[in-house]
Amino acid sequence: MEETSPKYADKESIESLIRKLHLSPLTPFSQDWEYTSADSSRVNEFITYYEKNKLNNKEKFTLMMVIISSFDDYLSKGIGTEDIKIWNRIKQNILKDYKLHINTIIYWAPEENDLEDCFAVTPYIREILEQKSM
Q1: Are 108 and 121 in contact (CB under 8 A)?
Q2: Helix %, strand %, coil % for the chain, to 5?
Q3: Do 62 and 9 contact (CB within 8 A), yes or no?
Q4: Angstrom distance (rounded) from CA 66 to CA 46
Q5: Could you give the 3-state DSSP secondary structure of residue 121?
Q6: What is the pTM of this model?
Q7: Residue 1 CB neighbour total at 10 angstroms
Q8: Per-residue pLDDT averaged across 43-53, rounded?
């Protein structure tokens, strides 16, 4: 794996994003905060924050995990009408910081699984892998 890509969100970046984006706080029992803090109704807000604010790499990594999880929820609910528009923004940011997000891409695009056994966002994420392998 890429040395520049973290595998997990760290406490410092989580606490920073909680303050900046008013996300759910960490508790002694918090597990997978980056997924439980996802909010499909805020996915565009999260993307805009990623694009327009100065974030260190750990914050970018953690926020992208929240963004993808939020988009996965958005797709799972099946109520969205802007799937492609939102996805294109996410994809552009992932590609811009590809090395930083490689472990996140691998997580959301489990290539060993059939699409029926994957996340709603998996076909979108696999698109990035296909594009990068060309």
Answers
A1: yes
A2: 65, 0, 35
A3: yes
A4: 8
A5: coil
A6: 0.91
A7: 8
A8: 98
Detail the DSSP E strand segments found in the chain. none
Query: Token pair for residue 65?
Result: 């995990």
- 10 Å CB burial of residue 119 (0-12, 13-18, 19+) is buried
pLDDT digits (tens, 9 = 90+) for 49-89: 999 999 999 999 999 999 999 999 999 988 777 899 999 99
End-to-end, the C-alpha distance of the chain in Å comes to 19
Phi-psi category of 78—alpha, beta or left, where left has phi over 0 and alpha has psi -120 to 50?
A: left
How many Å apart are CA 92 and CA 47, to the nearest integer? 10
The amino acid occupying position 95 is L
Please report where in the chains the tokens 């909680």 appear, as a residue: 18
Count how many residues are written for the chain: 134
